[in-house]
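Quick one, tokens below:
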């Protein structure tokens, strides 16, 4: 699986949007696979929840939505290895108080560099989702501008 992902990372370099989302159920190994890819590529994985959360926690609640995009861009620049950015624990991007469109944010980063991110939701019937219908953070997306990389359940 690592070899297949590694090859895909090379193949997307020429695309306009260079976004790969690792998709699979909780506990299937998305974080482990990202770590293995980071080791193979001599890169770092950014824990978005921890790093972005740390930056935004220093700001008053009202200012966080205004600074979230800039903080994420600065962190991406710090964590990128060449033109490769690896992202894990992106759930904070779905926090309604930040007023972000998580997938759009990832796609914008993927215009300038290759981005591989662990998607914390599901892929069903050709659609990506985050949370369940009725949940305040529920999101539903098409697959335009990204490549889903499905991970089979371990075991």
């Amino acid at each position: 699986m690592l070899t297949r992902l590694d090859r895909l990372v090379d193949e997307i370099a020429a695309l306009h949007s260079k976004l790969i989302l690792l998709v699979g159920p909780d506990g299937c190994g998305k974080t482990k696979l990202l770590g293995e890819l980071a080791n193979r590529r001599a890169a770092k994985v950014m824990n978005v929840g921890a790093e972005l959360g740390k930056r935004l926690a220093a700001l008053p609640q009202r200012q966080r939505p205004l600074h979230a995009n800039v903080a994420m861009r600065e962190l991406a620049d710090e964590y990128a290895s060449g033109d490769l950015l690896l992202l894990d624990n992106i759930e904070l991007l779905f926090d309604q108080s930040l007023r972000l469109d998580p997938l759009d944010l990832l796609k914008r980063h993927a215009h300038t560099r290759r981005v591989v991110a662990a998607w914390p939701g599901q892929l069903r019937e050709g659609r990506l989702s985050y949370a369940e219908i009725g949940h305040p953070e529920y999101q539903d997306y098409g697959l335009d501008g990204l490549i889903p990389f499905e991970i089979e359940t371990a075991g």
